[in-house]
Amino acid sequence: MKKQKLMKLTNELKQGKSECFDEFYDLTKVSVYYTIKKIVKDSNILEDIMQDTYVKFINSLQKIDANYNPFSYLLMIARNTALDECKKNNKVECLDFTEESESVALNLEKAITPLSCEMETKFDAPLLNYCKDKLSDEEYKILELTVIYGYKRVEVAEMLNIPKSTLNWQYNNILKKIKNFYKEVYNEKI
Amino acid sequence: MRKYNKKIKEELESKVPDLKVTIKCSIDWKAIKDMNEEKENSCSYNKLNENVKQKSFKQPFKFKVAISSFACVFLVCLSIILPLSLAKNEEGKTIQIGENYLLTIDVNPSIRLEIDSNDTVVSQTGLNKDGIIFLYKENFVGEKANDVTKEIVDKLNNSGFFKYNKSMRVCVNDTNGNKNENMQNKITSTLTTYFKQANENVELSILNHDELTKIENLYYKNDIKSFEYKIAEDYNKKLMEQANQKLLTMQALTSILSFYANIIDDEDYELKEFSFIPYIKDYCNKYNYNLYFELDKVTLKNIKELYHNLMQEKETLEFTLVEIKNGNAESNFPNEMKDLYYLVEDILYAEN
Fold first, then answer.
1. Does A68 touch chain B (CB under 8 A)?
2. Rounded distance, CA B74 to CA A131, Å?
3. Cβ of A165 and B32 within 8 Å?
4. pTM for the complete prediction?
């Protein structure tokens, strides 16, 4: 994800420039969708939660310092909103994040640490599901952070507290595996 | 390889609903704007120094800089506007100058930054060959002027430009060519604080109009603009050369260390063999590689771990070079090659 770009767009959204929202949405929608989808299966509810997430985010923009990463905050809101919905419907036993969602939550690790309700989520995405089945937990986490959330490998290495060279090596291996998975899933080469 | 990542993202993207319009209609944008204005008015004015990057200057100057013996002067000035067909913004286009001012930094390298009324850099230009080399891989557009000044001074320091001469000239002019005392004092104050914190004894003075005009005249006389195109090709070519050279060095070093790395022994003990020490030293010096152990007391475990780390880094560098070749690199200047940029710039300064 282009962090600088997002920070710039966030600063402009703070100034009430609604024309910047389209680009902001396009840059973040996949990650937000993925975060919510891991918790909520119903598409209609998912859309409502996505809408609530962005509205909450925009309305609490003033809490975000210019130097903080707004993306982490957005994902935290997405996750908390989805979990609140789960609690409301008593669908699953969830941790109470209510207080955290009101504060500036910057810890992406918390935002993405999967709960038991998220572990079994299947997406309507054949290659992704296949990756989830075949890759180890650690490998899938690296895939999530780099491909879906768009973090650079250097950032992911820091998040996961592993050496950059180790992460690069693991990332290379994951790519080789995905290439084979693609052939198996789609029965063709790109 | 990137195509498969793209496929995963495409799978998800096709499922994401388009809620842009719905969301935008749900928000009171005027209230957002008012809240922001209220917050800005209540904040104190001087927030420019909040994000100071505290860098250590205790490391030795590792790179020899072939600078001539003439006085190396560092000056910061805001000068009158020059035609900016060469000014480079984020997209490489010329910025229309409104109420902006220009910040010129001349140490040899000479650099010009265009800054808007929010103290944000909107374009950057090298005013001489060294300036173009200096700025080639940097992008300060979008950053605050104070932060950029500090970043530039950091890089000048790390590149060894203050090693032989420690003097600085500062001048600030507005777009009409008049002195801007307020901004000049601000810049001077920032630099004084900065050098004091870094424990650098740099003398500050003011650049006069004639000296500034001389810099600008030399820019046109030496046709610096055409050098900008040449340096792009040169820089990339030398970067690849250095990267390949590093790979060869890593190959040689890991070959030497492989004997110890392949010893099957769970016990750790101090090695008495020292023939590999000079090779490790050379590698560390050239590529600024941080060893976590002392070379006068090397154990088997140290060598095994060093070997393993070097093999991983070698594989990473090879992968990065393939990505660059295929146009799939995440950045034009990957972090995996950061130790090579100073080397390349060193060579280019010497050649030009």
1. no
2. 55
3. no
4. 0.48
